[in-house]
Amino acid sequence: MFSLLESKEEIAKAQRKLEVTIRRDFNSMVVKNIGYPGGTTFNAKVNTDRHHWFLSKDHDAARKPNPRRLNWFGLFRESADLEISVEINTPYDGRNGQVAGFFARDTDTRAIYLFHSGRVGGATKGVGKSTFLVWRDQRPKEVVDSSGAIRGGILVMPIEGKAATRPVVQYIDSVARFKQAVRAGETKTTEFRRKEKKYRDFYPEPRGRRKGERSAEIDYLSRHGDVVVALNEWRNSQTLEKGARLVKNVLFDLGVEMGRELVEVYEVKTSTARSNLYSAIGQLMVHGAGDACRRVMVLPHKQPIAADFRDALERLEIELLKFKLDEVKAKIG
């Protein structure tokens, strides 16, 4: 479970840690112009790793309504002005639904994360939150505020820790690819419309957060996307039967289809906590319901699995695959 940071002091502290973490890895500073629909910010000092860039500054509250801290991210170009891929601005205090970014704490581990509503902008028609979530196969996480109300958001990155910026780099790339896909008309196809319907029909079940063992260096939760990418590459490197293709959607992390039939289904969990294992078993049994369907659960290699779950996996004919994670990438097997 995640709880929203609402006090001015906690948000300010989280923002400072976020900036220190990003600037640690985006350790070059350059002066660039930043263009966006409606204007240009001239001679902005941005931090960059030479592939992506980051700028954070206070919003001009004296001249504009809705004060917030600006966190701008984009793809870096040496010889041209920069463009904003995504804004993950954060409020100074309280809950503010008009600001797309926010901080939330994992109530089990106490780790704090930067979240984004999924609201992406741009001058291109069709670029928007709901289409982005469908395109990305994104399951928003539930964050509870002090009144008990729920806010959904995409977990972007932890605000500190080893390899913490890895997931935000992936997120920037994902937003940039989405905008390209919209411009190319990929979100107007019959297949994408079918995918949209599946997404809207999906009603996510409540899921608990993990307790217990947690890496002190690598934050597994924020690196779920790395594991899915490695899983895709691992399965793609093996022989696929003629006519088979890899598929992914909001309901499961990876599958193999023959025609319209799902013949393999994989689900990644970043810990072996009971809540995660119950959820994975349910997803695999529901979406891999066919007698001939191969069902595979993908778990971190060092985390123990309770004996009753091992027995259940054997009875249900669910295979177990392990992954390893370092600062740069995930490895399957």
What does this structure look like?
This protein is an alpha+beta fold. It has two domains: 200 residues, no CATH class; 112 residues, Trna Endonuclease, Chain: A, domain 1 (3-Layer(aba) Sandwich). Helix content is 28%, strand content 32%. The strands form three sheets. Strands 2, 3, 4, 5, 6, 7 and 8 form a seven-stranded mixed sheet that branches. Strands 13-14-15-16-17-18 form a six-stranded mixed sheet, sandwiched between helices. It starts with a strand and ends with a strand.
Question: What are the main properties of this structure?
Answer:
six-stranded mixed sheet; Trna Endonuclease, Chain: A, domain 1; 333 residues; 18 strands; globular; seven-stranded mixed sheet; single chain; alpha+beta
The percent range for strand residues is 25-35%
SSE arrangement, N to C = EHEEEEEEEEEHEEHHHEEEHEHEE
Tally of structural domains = 2
Q: What is Rg?
A: 21 Å
Global mean pLDDT: 90
Residue share in helix: 25-40%
Q: In terms of per-residue confidence, which ranges show pLDDT below 50 for 5 or more consecutive residues?
A: 203-216
The main sheet comes to: 7 strands, mixed
| Class from helix and strand fractions | alpha+beta
Number of strands: 18
